[in-house]
Amino acid sequence: MAETRSEYQLDVQGISLSFGGLMALNAVSFGVKPGEIYAIIGPNGAGKTCMLNCICRFYHPQRGRVIFEGEDISSLATHRVASRGIARTFQNIELFKGMTVLDNIKLGRHVHLRTGLLSGGMWWGRAYREEMALRREIEENIIDLLEIEAIRKQVVGTLPYGLQKRVELARALAMKPRILLLDEPMAGMNLEETEDMARFILDVNEEWGVTVILIEHDMGVVMDISNRVCVLDFGFKLAEGTPREVQTNEDVVRAYLGDTESAYSKLGT
User: Fold this and answer.
1) What span, in angstroms and rounded, lies between the C-alpha atoms of 51 and 55?
2) I want to staple 8 with a disulfide (CB 3.0 to 4.6 A). Which of 31, 36, 114, 134 is the partner?
């Protein structure tokens, strides 16, 4: 059995995942250091989201293991993984559209709440104090950081797409993550929204010290904010390195359209 590499906060070791005869991930390994912004890129169908689902235990790989801060979390239930400090956003927005922004964000903390059924149902004593403390923390920290004070009481389903993506990030931050998994956080955004989201991610990483694993198709963003990049292609790990190393890797260039000039343009060189 492979040993844990102590320099990594998250150590992914030989993950293989298949659906019937379709191999989604084939013995993929990588490590993410504390405080990094680590990007996973690749063409559509490369296995990027499958990898995040394996880390979170939404999918159960046939082989391999995931080590988080020295603990093998490969057999934990999904909610146990979340309680360890791994939070995520989704490629398609997964919010409760009929609830307010504030209530959606507060749901992110449920894995850490300690009140029981009786006190929670009657909303007195410890349950009341715990929720009031949570609300103050969300409003003073998360809502302020993401600049969504003006919409905190609005129903999520009435908000524009870009703001809903921001609320989803806020809910993930309410989980008090040590690692934040972001699945295409800029997808569908205009230039201004993309720049804002990139700034928020950098703030979370630099000011809060949260490690970030990022899936993103906007190569300009990836190359600007990432410390290291992992490239997947048809379930295989194709390359890994700094943004500059990945940009100039010929295997990566061929994977992006197979046309050198177009690929270099797409990779932001």
Assistant:
1) 6
2) 31
DSSP secondary structure of 21-32: TEEEEEEEEEEE
The C-alpha torsion from 178 through 59 and 110 to 161, rounded to 10°, is: 80
| Cα–Cα distance for residue pair 213/38, rounded to 1 Å | 5
pLDDT digits (tens, 9 = 90+) for 150-168: 999 999 999 999 999 999 9
Quote the DSSP letter at residue 142: I
The letter for the amino acid at 234 is F
For residue 241, which amino acid is it?
Answer: G
State the Cα–Cα distance between residues 239 and 83, nearest whole angstrom: 31
Structural contact between residues 45 and 208, judged by C-beta atoms closer than 8 angstroms: no
pTM for this entry: 0.86
Q: Token match 């082989």: residue?
A: 63
Domain membership of residue 199 as a residue range: 10-266
pLDDT (tens digit per residue) in 33-67: 999 999 999 988 899 999 999 999 999 999 999 99
E strands along 80-235, which residues? 86-88, 179-183, 211-215, 228-233
HSE, CB side, 13 Å, CA atoms: give it for residue 81: 26
- How far, in Å, CA of 68 to CA of 6, rounded? 10
Cα distances (Å, whole numbers) of residue 24 to 18, 185, 211: 5, 22, 25
Task: Provide the number of structural domains found in the chain.
Answer: 1
Domain containing 92 — which CATH number? Answer: 3.40.50.300
In a domain, 77, yes or no: yes
